[in-house]
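Lay summary. Proteins are chains of building blocks that fold into shapes, and those shapes determine what they do. In this project we predict the shape from the chain. Here is one chain we studied, written as its sequence of building blocks.
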Amino acid sequence: LVALLRGKRDFATLQTAGWYRLPVAYTPPRWPPEYIAFYQPKAFGGDAFRIRYFGKVARITTAVRRELFPNEFESEKSGKLYHRIEIERMHA
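And here is the predicted shape, written in a compact code that computers can read:
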């Protein structure tokens, strides 16, 4: 699975907490993945537009966004269901 790191906050969560979130509504046909790679768009500056990191999937659970990000303000996304994809170890 190739996942889009929308911004540096997503990357920080991946680095510090070891997980990535994917909306359940966007679950790909070949599920669950064994590995996940992360595409970095232009939000990452000069080092962007590439896949630099990947990892083996350790576990996948589901949760609503407000559980994943309890410090966020309530919004229309707060109740949406996400896959929480835990990574064993990230590789560059």
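What the prediction tells us: The beta strands are 2-4, 19-23, 35-40, 50-64, 81-91.
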